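Private note to self, pasted from the team thread so I don't lose it. Backbone tokens:
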């Protein structure tokens, strides 16, 4: 036991004093039966994970304030999911993270001969083998891990397994998410993966500005093209507000790094470029000066080279999605010629890591 841990043990009778992890279940309406895992990190961070929804992040609070958008749909049971057309939206709570894939990104279409709904099935798949366990970091701090397995498979089709793991550390306002996707079938298989990361009020409001270190920005639609010069501005809510999506090609340095930030331009300090390491990581930040809360997301631009900005600032639908992925959302589907998604050979795995950091 480290000196830090040994000293800390003198003050506590149970590790629940340092960090809390508890399981619960919602009981009312369309949310009935939805299980959740709540983690309190002993600092300013609280996170709610939904095992029945792909172990995605439903809500994150930092310093008592909400970080992400939540839709009117609420945390509905995955068993109410209907993949036809845009019915996905009936189950789309948005949240801090909704994972897209593993067979489709973007609108409904036929993939490997099977119709796939908007953004695939991942978020509407129940995890198995779910666990919450404690560990001690190398420097002697208390930690919590939450994880489980999400399987997407059928006879005559794919057999893909995702082992998902969240890691929290006492008093450190970060979440590290690691996904390992394995092809357990006996034929090569392409797979698509999208981290649909979403921010909302009160972190997101007019005066909170986004800066992406982009070499190129392309509007997805004619409507988005009208506002190309303001893609990085966060305006007050309005109605109607047709959504605007922009595809970014992120700038990389010699080590394959990208950088993007979100901050309030009223902040009267100098902003410095983020330090870059050697493992191909990117980071973007959001910062709201009025409320003095911020968020940063960090990931590898080499394994998640595509990036979509979903700007939806309507009244009651006020959300900014910043979404890295491993293939182009509007490109060919997995299994089609020209699709850039990775191919997993039988027994092969790919690992993805996304880091969330919240700060004041």
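Design output:
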């Amino acid at each position: 036991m480290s000196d830090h841990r040994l000293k800390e043990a003198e003050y506590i009778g149970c590790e629940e004093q340092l960090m809390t992890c508890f399981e619960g279940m919602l009981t009312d309406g369309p949310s009935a039966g939805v299980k959740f895992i709540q983690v309190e990190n002993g600092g300013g961070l609280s996170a709610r994970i939904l095992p029945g929804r792909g172990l995605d992040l439903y809500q994150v609070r930092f310093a008592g304030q909400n970080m992400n958008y939540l839709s009117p749909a609420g945390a509905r049971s995955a068993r109410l999911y209907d993949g036809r057309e845009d019915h996905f939206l009936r189950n789309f709570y948005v949240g801090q993270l909704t994972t897209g894939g593993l067979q489709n990104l973007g609108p409904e279409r036929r993939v490997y001969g099977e119709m796939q709904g908007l953004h695939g099935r991942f978020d509407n798949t129940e995890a198995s083998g779910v666990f919450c366990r404690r560990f001690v970091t190398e420097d002697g701090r208390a930690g919590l891990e939450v994880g489980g397995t999400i399987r997407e498979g059928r006879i005559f089709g794919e057999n893909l397994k995702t082992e998902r793991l969240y890691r929290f550390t006492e008093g450190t306002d970060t979440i590290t998410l690691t996904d390992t996707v394995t092809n357990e079938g006996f034929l090569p298989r392409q797979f698509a993966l999208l981290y649909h990361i979403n921010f909302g009020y009160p972190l997101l409001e007019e005066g909170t500005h986004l800066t992406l270190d982009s070499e190129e920005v392309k509007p997805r639609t004619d409507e988005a093209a009208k506002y190309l010069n303001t893609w990085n501005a966060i305006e007050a809510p309005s109605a109607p507000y047709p959504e605007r999506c922009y595809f970014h090609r992120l700038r990389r340095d010699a080590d394959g790094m990208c950088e993007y930030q979100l901050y309030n331009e009223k902040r009267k300090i100098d902003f410095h470029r983020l330090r870059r390491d050697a493992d191909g990581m990117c980071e973007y930040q959001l910062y709201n000066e009025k409320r003095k809360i911020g968020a940063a997301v960090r990931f590898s631009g080499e394994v998640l080279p595509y990036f979509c900005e979903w700007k939806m600032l309507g009244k009651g639908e006020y959300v900014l999605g910043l979404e890295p992925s491993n293939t182009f959302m509007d490109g060919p589907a997995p299994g089609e010629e020209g699709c850039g998604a990775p191919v997993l050979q039988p027994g092969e795995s790919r690992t993805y890591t996304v880091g969330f950091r919240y700060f004041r």
